[in-house]
Amino acid sequence: MLKKIFFFFIFFTSLLHGEVEINLRDSLKFKEIRRGGLDKNGYVIAQGLLEVSCSQEDIGKLIIFNIPPYGLMTNKKRWLKIEKIVFENNNNKLILKDTKHFIKIYGILNKHELNKHPRADINEGSYIGYFPINFSIYSKEL
Q1: Is this prediction's pTM over 0.85?
Q2: What is the pLDDT of residues 33-84, one digit of tens each?
Q3: CA angle (86, 91, 95) in 5-degree steps
Q4: Nearest to 51 by CA among 85, 24, 27, 29
Q5: CA geometry: angle 76, 77, 81, nearest 5 deg
Q6: 9 phi and psi, to 5 degrees?
């Protein structure tokens, strides 16, 4: 009986503590793709937005994001591999200073990947990208 009360107390106190939520507010999308004129680098950049929200009790905690080195984008007809995914300022660490934070994410795609398929109707369309986000939350110093 004492064990049940103890586990109930632990469970109840864990529910009262704040929680950190991370949502993909905008998935990776290209602003503009011009297939005809390749620039000298030959890359196009997709942009997305992460939203991190927390309670007042979580302010001061450290969040470290771990993302895979590549992702995928699709126009529902064709899949493209994003070569690299990076955070704004190339920083994957965030210290919570406010209840809401917005982080920009960039995906880099080689423009030559768009030209690999010969049919234009398969290449055309709006591309949207997704990737898994793993994160760790570390408590603030006391």
Answers
A1: no
A2: 665 544 556 788 888 899 999 888 888 889 998 888 888 888 888 888 888 8
A3: 135
A4: 24
A5: 85
A6: -65, -45
